[in-house]
Design a protein that fits this description.
Number of strands of chain A: 7
CATH architecture of chain A: 3-Layer(aba) Sandwich
CATH class of chain A: Alpha Beta
Structural class of chain A: alpha/beta
CATH topology of chain A: Rossmann fold
Largest interface: A-B, 78 and 78 residues
Number of domains of chain A: 1
Oligomer: homodimer
CATH superfamily of chain A: Flavodoxin domain
Chain lengths: 246, 246
């Protein structure tokens, strides 16, 4: 087995001593190491160091085929880090995400990571029936910690959203390590029971999205045409995302 | 009527010329001015200038009764801005939020604003039956723009989440200005039809949350007890939020 590349995405602002997600992620990594003792390459991504999507990103993302800052001397930090974060995902076999639930959803910095990683032709694409994830065959582990909210309850806007985005990217195998309501011991028991990194045959995954519009421009974003100087909608297309070249 | 204080919360990284949410928000403000021609005080809050919740915030929020940076010479930017953002909400009658949908949810910077504003005894509290919002009697207008996603669809993780948080804060009157699928003109027509800033009698609102745990510490966060040096859950309470003093 060659499941040797792991990207670890951390979104807690707390350090290893205080952060439950970091500590449970560490236990999970130790378990994964036992299951696959061959050489591993672990990449660490700290979401708190990522910027918000900026104006330049919203402009450049309309042509993501140029999504390589190497030929772009004036790329903003967001654009450059978008390339790096996508590369980490593409080159990894396993994605581990530490998620402390803040106010019923994911931390803002983890949303920044998602926005930087959701790039057409990099992590997802389109075919005739809708969006198609490009991260096929990878598996994801979400370590979700919550002081009170039960993971998966009607008010869990975090876990459900993460599943949706990972599915959009084509990731079929999603394991949620449940550290809700302070049940760390239960989470450690859940980790102990993990017997494989990923099922042997990973099915192709398609995001089950409404077929509202097959134009790739429609997925990522967002702001439609601005108003013209008369206060009416402009006829110029300004959708910020993702028309493929062909 | 004294509905004269408006806080305008912007989360698009684009400027006035390119951002649809900013332009539609402007049209909305003009309409609100017509409905209430008395003196108005408009506060502007740019979410892109807000930091992520930081380590200091996660520590200080456990004692939000000290949520005033004036007596705190070493307050972090997040802690100081949390105070300011809460003050803006408390002092306003109307909250207008510009929301470009990115990847089926709100921008990361708007989540930062929510995390900085969800502070016990400032925007919400608890009584014997659960959480109780403290921003009673205010009204909110959400200008939600999306290139493709239909507002309110099963994959709209943004609007539904915002409604949930505003309800938690006690805001009963929420109007969504729908700029989904590029339908700017429809949004402008919707704005034209607005006839009042807020219904004359605002009912008390309670968030309908599961009664999983009445301890105030449970709402905001998040990470439960860390593991001790033996890798077992610590018995020391470290929930980061919000135990009231009484």
């Amino acid at each position: 087995m060659s499941h040797s590349r792991i990207v670890v995405v951390q979104s807690s602002p707390r350090n290893d001593t205080l952060s439950v997600t970091r500590q449970v992620v560490q236990k999970l990594l130790e378990k994964l190491a036992k299951l696959s003792p061959n050489d591993k390459h672990i990449l660490n991504r700290e979401c708190a160091e990522l910027p918000y999507v900026d104006k330049e990103f919203t402009e450049k993302i309309t042509n993501p085929c140029k999504h390589n800052p190497n030929g772009d001397k004036v790329a903003s930090k967001a654009w450059t880090l978008s390339w790096e974060c996508c590369e980490e995902l593409i080159q990894s076999d396993i994605i581990v995400i530490g998620v402390p639930i803040y106010n019923f959803s994911i931390p803002a910095c983890l949303k920044s990571w998602i926005d930087l990683c959701t790039v057409i032709k990099r992590t997802y694409s389109f075919d005739e029936s809708g969006p198609l994830g490009l991260l096929q065959g990878k598996s994801a582990f979400l370590v979700v910690a919550s002081g009170g909210m039960e993971i998966g309850c009607a008010y869990d806007f975090g876990t459900r959203y993460l599943r949706h985005i990972l599915t959009l990217w084509g990731i079929a195998h999603i394991t949620v390590i449940d550290v809700s309501q302070g049940q760390v011991e239960r989470a450690l028991q859940q980790i102990e029971k993990i017997t494989s990194l990923v099922p042997p045959t990973a099915p192709m995954v398609k995001a089950h999205l409404p077929t509202y519009n097959h134009k790739p421009a429609m997925i990522h974003n967002s702001e439609p045409n601005p108003l013209n100087k008369d206060g009416l909608p402009s006829t110029e297309p300004t959708d910020m995302l993702a028309v493929p070249e062909e």
